[in-house]
Input
Amino acid sequence: MINNITLIWLATPFFIGFVIYLFPKLDRFLSLGVAIFSLAYAVLIFSDRESWNLQLLDSFGITLTIDELSGFFILTNALVTIAVILYCWGNNRTTPQDNAGFNHFFYMQMIILHGSVNATFICVDFISLYVALEVISIAAFLLIAYPRTDKSIWVGLRYLFISNVAMLFYLIGAVLVYQAHNSFNYAGLQGSPPEAVAFIFLGLLVKGGIFVSGLWLPLTHSESQSPVSAMLSGVVVKAGVYPMVRCALMLEDIDPIVRFFGVATAVLGVCFAVFEKDTKRMLAFHTVSQLGFVLAAPIVGGFYALTHGLVKSALFLITGILPSRNFKQLQQQPMTTNIWIALAIASFSISGFPLLSGFGAKVLTSKNLLPWQVIGMNLAALGTAISFAKFIFLPHKQQKEVKEAKLSWGFWLAMAVLLGGLIAANIFYYQAYTLANTIKPLATIALGWIAYLLIFKKLVIKLPRDYEQFDHLIGVMSLILILLFWIVWTRSPVLI
Output
């Protein structure tokens, strides 16, 4: 029974995607129905609490595993997609800053992207993952280039080219795993040649926006339309992160590698974010940093991915309706109190403030760190509090005192889904609410706010962007490949 439900659920987004093209007037209803189906499937996973394994074709074919870890990622994908569809529905004609409506082509790509991301969250063989990641690349490219401006097309092509180069390395690694074990299963990494691990991880690091391999991400996420940025940052990058988390849980040799990149990514991303003066670029750098938190403690990465997906999608949608992307200008232009409250709730959650699920996710992650990870992750948490103080301390006034266009019902419904989800997700780890657990996050946030008000708010440092140039990004891939070879071959003691 569950096997049939899984296969129907897996195929539905692709089938509906083509149906939308035949019946364009039903685009929003059908898209929303698919996302709600995913939400129901995630609830089924959590209600059953058993791990389901499906072997399709033969022993060398498609392998699927559905468990609680998959459930967190699928739930994230469902809620973010529902929120983005509602947002687009309410802004179907035009949006203040994006200046483009959303037609049936947009919804079709959105729902195909949703389905292919879901596929990455349940497959445990490299060839199925490869197919799903390639479909994600194409759908994401079409969504990024949707406005059909010169800049959007260039940003989309840049994303597609970098993604394809990374996946070429990945495919070579997958073939090497098959050559060693006659199987594409993730478990085949154990005992495979070191170059297989290096090639596969290079592909996943780039797709997931991890460490310096993720420096393509700030430009791509910040220059896309707000709903697309919400999808990219909320769920798409997790399609590259989830396989690393799964491999770390399956194989002891992989766990230290994943944890190492988790800490390095968390610190690197936050170092850029604290100095960034552009709202969307700051959020994009923080996506890099927060993905590091997901990898730093793989066993609880699913819960952290859920809270991050909800927060980051909400923040990208909110920044899309602000009058400016520049923090300096926003400090001179008060926003309405209603928008500020939504912005503050999301910022409090990602900073680790109690009553929101970001608090439980940070506590749970900190309890599952190894001793050598603690200092780096504490610095990253402090940097997070400093970064989001930029939003929390922005000025705001009542609606009647501010000249702003009235927001659509779609925006507020999207906020209800995402911010309501942040409160409801506390149920997954309500045990976090003890006095001992509360002191450290509150102290970190207080220290971060003081540092922001006394130091970082007054700093004017313009970060160079040369490293985001296309040729530099390709060069960085070569350096990461060398680093991966060194890690796998030497089994560096720094990772133990």
About this structure: The chain is about 70% helix and 0% strand.
